[in-house]
């Protein structure tokens, strides 16, 4: 059963600060039954002057270095999840600034389904690839002890896949057509 006192939400991003403000407004002030009971941590690794702190989050973590799209996100995941791992709330939801649960009921359903599944981890899945969508993920806090720190080997496997696909796309058109028949 969902209890907002059991959930630690981590919002991560390096830009999209208006999305962040809206997301925080939705979570904190529009969730009438649960908003004030959620623990919300923000991890930001963008321009320090573009993202305000103290506007409703419980914890604001600023990372002064952003190592780019993939590695910057990896740093934010590790920092935010490590912070949640040290806390007392048994469930962790981590999502990008621009991932919104517009209704309190929708968030409650997503968390309840995750809790009742008994799984250690859940994430969105898209039919165009076979990796978890990192935009929105749920974890059991105990699983974070085994998972962290997340290594960049995950990115290396994806890089190999993408470079293979690029090589395939660079083949002469007639070879691609012959293979399709």
Kindly summarize this structure in a few lines:
This protein has 181 residues and is an alpha/beta fold. It contains 6 helices and 6 strands, in the order βαββαβαββααα. The longest helix has 17 residues.
**Largest beta sheet: what is the strand line-up?**
3-2-1-4-6-5
Helix content: 40-55%
Distance between the termini: 53 Å
- Low-pLDDT residue intervals, each spanning 5 or more residues: 166-181
Q: Could you give the order of the helices and strands?
A: EHEEHEHEEHHH
| Total count of helical runs of at least 4 residues | 6
Query: What does the radius of gyration come to?
Result: 19 Å
Approximate shape: globular
Q: Roughly what fraction of the amino acids lie in strands?
A: 15-25%
Count the E strands.
6
What oligomeric assembly is this protein in? Answer: single chain
Structural class: alpha/beta
Mean pLDDT: 83
**Biggest sheet layout:** 6 strands, mixed
Characterise this structure:
With 181 residues, the chain is an alpha/beta fold. 43% of the residues lie in helices and 20% in strands. It is built from 6 helices and 6 strands. The chain has helices at residues 17-30, 69-85, 104-117, 141-147, 153-169, 173-180; strands at residues 7-13, 39-44, 59-62, 91-96, 121-125, 132-140. Strands 3-2-1-4-6-5 form a 6-stranded mixed β-sheet, sandwiched between helices. α2 crosses α4 (141-147). Mean pLDDT is 83; it is low at 166-181.
